[in-house]
Amino acid sequence: MAFVSSGYNPDKPMENRISDIGPRDYNEFLPPVIKNNYGKWLYHEILEPGVLVHVAESGDEVYTVRCGTARLMSITLIREMCDIADKHCEGYLRFTTRNNVEFMTDSKDKMVALKEDLLSRKFEGGSYKFPVGGTGAGVSNIVHTQGWVHCHTPATDASGTVKVIMDDLFDEFTGHNMPAPVRIAVACCLNMCGACHCSDIAVVGIHRKPPIIDHEYLDNLCEIPLAVASCPTGAVRPSKVEIDGKQYKTVAIKEERCMYCGNCYTMCPSLPLSDKEGDGIALMVGGKVSNRISMPKFSKVVVAFIPNEPPRWPTLTKTIRNIVEVYKADANKYERLGDWAERIGWERFFEKTGIEFTPHLIDDFRDPAYYTWRQSTQFKF
Ligand code: SF4
Ligand code: SF4
Question: What is the value of pTM for the model shown?
Answer without folding.
Answer: 0.88
